[in-house]
Write a structure and sequence with these properties.
Elements lengths: L4 H12 L3 H8 L3 H10 L5 H11 L3 H6 L30 E3 L6 E3 L2 E3 L5 E3 L7 E4 L1 H10 L3 H5 L3 E2 L9 E5 L14 E6 L11 E6 L3 E10 H4 L1 E5 L8 E3 L4 E11 L11 H25 L2
Parallel strand pairs: 5-7
Antiparallel strand pairs: 1-4, 2-3, 5-6, 7-8, 8-13, 9-10, 9-13, 10-11, 11-12
Helix pairs in contact: 2-3
Length: 293
Amino acid sequence: MENNFRSNIEYLRKIKGISYAGIGLQADCSANTVSYWIHKNTEPKMIEVERLARFFEIPIQELLYSNLSKGNLIEKSEQSENVPKGNLNGNLKGNLISEPAQIVHKWGDGVWVAPKVVVVGDDREENIVFVDLKARAGYLNGYGDMVWMGKQPSFRLPNLPSGSYRAFEVEGLSMYPTLKNTDIAITRAVETLDDVADYKIYVIITAEHGIVIKRLLNRLKTDNRLVLISDSPEFPPIVVIPDQVLEIWQLVRYIATTDEFTPNLPQEVWALKAQTAIMAKKLDEVLAKMEHQ
């Protein structure tokens, strides 16, 4: 997708009557730096893009890739005839597919890993695409394919912060007991690898390993590596380099698909707690009767 950052900054600057110095003040850079972006095709740092996106109150993806002068904040494709309209149990009616960002884009010191395709409804709000176990095999080929993404079921959840979300069905036991096989991980898109925080759980998409759900240790500054750690000690760590990463999604919610209870204490301790609580309750009842005699 064409990068429209320079034309968008010039457009926003003119309609808001802001000088190059004013833009530089918001981006924490000089007026000459802004002029070089516009006229000499130099690239801004990712932090400068983030500051300007906040200042203009538009998503980073739209600032970079939409043509704001034409008013299309989200690029849309014509929906395939084979994409089902659906309803709240599947796709929201009237899905539109957008391409807000490149899959991997090196910009300054960061590596851009935001999603290339998202699905939106008639109200232009994003839906959460659900990637189940059957779809996982095709995801590496389909994550940038508008038609493929549009055929996947999608839905919405209330009370989620702004951002792009995707749901992945958990496969295997590497994250047991935190996540179990067939649980559904609700994840939020990570825009750059610099945003990855230690010990948080992420869905990582790489060409070599496919879709994996792990805790991450960010060692980019020291070793130029990401280390993927399982909660189950039976699974060894995985080490990846930044260029291998296609997408990263941070776990924000999960839907348990089993009623299995995994206590954080031995069952004997839970049984003792229950018996103690019963005895305390009975004692309270005896004392209450004695007070009324």
